[in-house]
Design brief:
Blueprint: E1 10-14, E2 17-23, E3 27-29, E4 33-42, E5 49-51, E6 58-71, E7 77-89, E8 93-97, E9 101-104, E10 107-110, E11 114-119, H1 131-139, E12 152-156, E13 161-163, E14 168-177, H2 178-183, E15 189-191, E16 198-200, E17 204-205, E18 211-215, E19 218-231, E20 235-239, E21 243-249, E22 258-264, E23 268-273, E24 288-299, E25 302-304, E26 309-319, E27 337-351, E28 354-367, E29 371-375, E30 378-384, E31 389-395, E32 398-403, H3 425-466, H4 476-491, H5 495-499, H6 503-509, H7 514-532, H8 537-554, H9 567-585, H10 596-603, H11 606-619, H12 624-637, H13 640-653, H14 658-666, H15 672-677, H16 685-704, H17 710-735, E33 738-741, E34 745-749, E35 758-763, E36 767-774, E37 777-781, E38 787-791, E39 795-797
Parallel strand pairs: 3-11, 13-23, 24-30, 25-32
Antiparallel strand pairs: 1-2, 2-4, 4-7, 5-9, 6-7, 6-27, 8-11, 9-10, 12-14, 14-19, 15-21, 16-19, 17-19, 18-19, 20-23, 21-22, 24-26, 26-28, 27-28, 29-32, 30-31, 33-36, 33-39, 34-35, 36-37, 37-38
Length: 798
């Protein structure tokens, strides 16, 4: 099998999940490396968790995680999770890897173990120790004992005081007499328990004797187990006891049984100090390292508009590479670049026994405009534990040239721009009313109706008393007298002024001419004299004619009494109010504005035009034309997600505008849930509120003037209640924390960090509900079961 790579693959298919584990070589020597590749294929949406087995005899040198999604037509999508581990063999023998387990929901699948043969070589455990730990080991005296079968066990640490994040070497040392060791059929087993509150790397156990000493004429062999840990928090760190186990045959026969022995040491304590305060020139940080270097790379350095550019930031040096965070901010991209974070690669190495390596953060940028750009200097502060001071790693700026490219999606129908129109009249009126005005519209009409109904009830009562017999049939003069008194009651509400000598003065105050007011007072006195004095019928006819003349002058109608508002008139008033609201959407702009943004749009300078329209929208957020023009510019630039967000905001401000409606049809929702979440009703909540208020006011005015037609009252009540319900539904829909995906696609990850698996991916223009945030990550969810975390830069709230 020379020259041929032996690939050992274990395969298991359970409930639709497929998990494989393979190595690129099955035989190697101590110190050589191999690649372990784990693949998990699934059609389900649940995330797959890969659980690694104990890698005894191997050290993890590097790792890489990635997820691929393949669309396979009607059968759905296949998600592949890949984890690659670069392992270095540290001890000889037949080493077993596995089984590797994968968990998806409640289902757990496992592969078969993989057997790797490692040829023997010189013990390398002591070579992986740091100089300080190696010096400590060499200076440790061997135990002095008179017994030849006495095994000594101790725990060694280079220092009992360290900083948080600084490397600590834990060494378990077992001194075994050589005579006793020669009787053992296998080396002793040393066990190191990982302390709590640390980041630990795998334990390395010596495959043979690490050191030998002659004590009192007898040779003592040293076996060690070594582990590197990094304390995470300051305080008192307790190192658990270590143990050693070995077995001795009872007799010298090969088939003799063995008697097992175990020895346990004492625990020790280490003081972990917090990092000192950072100077004012360096930002506060928790990164601990030594000799860190920063490298910024761009590939390629020349590109075109719309073509992607790969950028990477590599942090290299000595320290806990796995926990090094990315620089904040990672890369200050120029305006007009769409940025997408990519995978993160970690490579581990040793530098004189200390953990070292590199961590690379990859990004993908897509330029929207042409020009010469510069990615500025990247700075990365850290604390140098060896020097006891803070330092700063820097990466030099990088230049990037972007040439003009073909306009994306040139075959599209480009929507025209709209002139500015200002805030809609209905929204402006609703905002100016405030909650006090809406409360007055709710309470004042019923109060007016109650006062008016009391007045109307009082007028017929007065007329009935004047006519004398409550149940008798009224004469023509009596009916005229009732109408006359009702008209007096409508002009003069005070009964004392109406019945006393101040009637003429009260009528003049109500706007009646002086001569008419005096004539009305005299006519009232003549009516009283005709009813209660010795007058004949001839005077009654003359008096009735005079009353009719006065009623015509005062605006009363003889036949029908007071006129009631008809349903047709009221509906015309409501429709007129709606027409005014609709016409306000197409009103001319309230103020003139510079055509610079429109000129830039026509010239094709889309990025600058989008910035100008965005500035207008920020300055006048209630003008739908600004949001529509911003969406049109972004749509022409190919940023469909951002265009959808801008057009939805414009539609919420002017829901019946035909241009905005046509623009939204250019970007249909990517899924039914998004269509439901981004639905915009026929009118705004303010317009529904004004329609409901109009129906409410006219309803109570109808009752105030004495209207008793049930159909009319039911009609106005239905208008008020229906408009109120529709307005509440629209307000509730808009009050939800909805965000739109503005990136091409947003992976929804199971946890707020880039290495977490993506349970689902929402396409650009898709809608999500926003929850809490955690740094740059935002929790999102939807009614179709999507729940996880996305980057805040990938979504835009409405």
């Amino acid at each position: 099998m020379t020259g041929i790579l032996s690939v050992i693959t274990a395969l298991l298919v359970v409930q639709g999940a497929e998990v494989t584990a393979s190595v690129d070589r099955s035989r190697l020597r101590v110190g050589e490396e191999l690649m372990l590749t784990i693949r998990a294929h699934t059609r389900a949406a649940d995330p797959v968790e890969i659980m690694l087995p104990p890698l005894n005899g191997f050290a993890i040198v590097g790792s890489r995680d990635m997820t691929e999604v393949a669309i396979s037509g009607a059968s759905g999508s296949i998600r592949t999770t890949v984890r690659e581990l670069q392992l270095r063999a540290q001890q000889p023998g037949a080493l077993l890897i596995g089984p590797v387990r994968a968990r998806q929901g409640v289902s757990v699948v496992a592969t078969d173990p993989i057997l790797v043969t490692v040829d023997s070589a010189a013990d390398r455990t002591t070579l992986t120790l740091s100089p300080l730990a190696r010096a400590l080991l060499e200076s440790t005296p061997a135990p002095v004992s008179r017994r030849a079968d006495r095994v000594a066990l101790t725990m060694l640490v280079p220092s009992d005081t360290v900083f948080a994040g600084q490397q600590v070497d834990l060494i378990a040392a077992a001194w075994i007499p050589r005579e006793l060791g020669e009787r053992m059929r296998r080396p002793p087993l040393l066990t190191l328990e990982t302390p709590e509150g640390v980041w630990a790397y795998p334990t390395a156990t010596s495959s043979g004797v690490a050191l030998s000493r002659q004590v009192s004429g007898r040779w003592m062999d040293l076996f060690i187990a070594h582990q590197v840990v990094f304390p995470l928090v300051p305080g008192r760190l307790i190192i658990p006891p270590v143990s050693v186990e070995y077995a001795l045959p009872v007799t010298f026969s090969f088939f003799s049984r063995e008697e097992r022995y175990a020895l346990r040491s004492d625990s020790i304590a280490i003081t972990v100090l917090p990092l000192p305060p950072a100077p004012s020139a360096i930002p506060a940080t928790n990164v601990v390292g030594q000799g860190l270097k920063l490298d910024l790379q761009i590939d390629p350095t020349t590109t075109r508009v719309g073509e992607p550019v790969e950028a990477s930031i590599t942090i290299s040096g000595t320290g806990n590479v796995a926990l090094w965070p990315p620089p904040e901010p990672a890369i200050k991209w120029p305006t007009g670049f769409r940025v997408y974070p990519a995978q993160t690669e970690v490579r581990l190495a040793t530098d004189a026994g200390r953990i070292a390596g590199s961590k690379t953060f990859h990004f993908l940028g897509v330029p929207d405009s042409s020009g010469n750009f510069v990615l500025p200097e990247v700075r990365y502060p850290y604390f140098d534990a060896a020097a006891g001071r803070y330092a700063m790693a820097t990466a030099a700026p990088r230049a990037l040239a972007v040439a003009p490219g073909a306009e994306p999606r040139a075959a599209r129908v480009l929507p025209p721009l709209l002139p500015a129109r200002g805030e809609l009249a209905a929204d402006s009126l609703s905002r100016r009313l405030g909650w006090q005005g809406w409360l007055a519209l709710l309470l004042v009409p019923p109060l007016i109706a109650w006062v008016a109904s009391r007045r109307w009830r009082r007028a017929p009562a007065d007329a009935g008393v004047t006519s004398g017999g409550g149940g008798a049939k009224l004469t023509p003069l009596g009916r005229l007298e009732r109408e006359f008194l009702a008209v007096l009651g409508s002009h003069v509400s005070d009964p004392f002024a109406r019945d006393g000598d101040g009637l003429a003065q009260a009528l003049r105050a109500a706007g009646v001419e002086s001569a008419v007011a005096d004539h009305v007072k005299r006519l009232r006195d003549r009516l009283r004299a005709a009813r209660y004095g010795p007058r004949g019928l001839g005077d009654a006819a003359e008096l009735g004619a005079e009353i009719e003349q006065v009623l015509r002058v005062l605006g009363a109608e003889r036949a029908g009494g007071m006129r009631r508002p008809s349903a047709t008139t009221t509906m015309v008033a409501i429709l007129a109010l709606s027409a005014v609201s609709v016409g306000a959407q197409h009103a001319p702009p309230a103020q003139s504005q510079t055509p610079s943004a429109e000129a830039l749009f026509e010239a094709g300078a889309l990025r600058v035009a989008a910035d100008s329209f965005a500035a207008r929208a920020a300055r006048e957020p209630r003008d739908p034309a600004h949001w529509y023009n911003l969406g049109a510019t972004l749509y022409r630039a190919g940023a469909d997600g951002k265009a959808t967000a801008a057009w939805i905001r414009a539609a919420r401000l002017a829901p019946r505008d035909p241009a905005i409606r046509r623009a939204l049809q250019l970007l249909p929702p990517p899924d039914p849930v998004t269509e439901q979440m981004l639905h915009v009703g026929w009118a705004t909540p303010a317009e529904w509120g004004l329609i409901a208020a109009t129906g409410w006011v006219i309803l109570w005015l109808t009752l105030a003037v004495g209207g008793r037609r049930r159909a009319v009252i039911a009609l106005f009540g239905a208008v008020a209640i229906g408009a109120s319900l529709l307005g509440a539904i629209e307000w509730r829909r808009r009050d939800r924390p909805v965000a739109v995906v503005i990136a091409d696609a947003a992976p929804v990850r199971a946890a707020p960090y880039g290495g977490a698996s993506a349970a689902a991916t929402v396409q650009g223009g898709g809608a999500l509900l926003v929850g809490r945030d955690y740094g740059p990550w935002v929790e999102v969810y939807r009614s179709d079961g999507i729940h996880g975390w996305v980057l805040g830069a990938e979504i835009s709230g409405l």
